[in-house]
Known about the structure:
The protein is an alpha+beta fold.
Amino acid sequence: KLKMTSIEKSTFVFLKALKNNNNREWFTENKSQFITEQHKVKEFYNALMERLKLHDAIDKFKFFRIYRDVRFSKDKTPYKAHFSGSFSRATKRLRGGYYLQISPEGSFLAGGFWEPNKEDLLRIRKEFEMDTTEIRAIINDKKFIKHFEKLEGDALKTAPRGFDKEHPDIDLINMKQFIAIRKFTDKEVLAANFLDE
């Protein structure tokens, strides 16, 4: 049996229909199609994990449920109109990870630290306080800019406690998240070389 190494058009057709009919009745009627599409996309994610392992130590892959948690949300639609999954880096030594979302007109790959714990965040800030040569070289690299534009993430408005607000690298020290995001068009997602990209 051939492994899914690309995303099929039928996946986008299903997700668009789900977005336009985001209710339990429609979903129940189309559950078998959902299961088919979910299975194909999961296979793609598994193929992606094998590729990631060639470059990084990945120990966990989590495919997120389609059901939304609406308890604390103003948006009460019951389903996400996308498929998504995350890949965690292995061992206590390696932190951060990767996230891929497949969604009509909203697909993207993200990597880095989404919510670093307190100790990791302090360590990153201390590293930046001492020397940002390495991170600056990466985020100013033409290839990085071409694919990701910039390092993204929430930041404090003022210097974190214990850090000099006049520090020349305060822009990086103030960050609470460190994420590189690459957006993909639907055409790119449906292309045969999407896994390579």
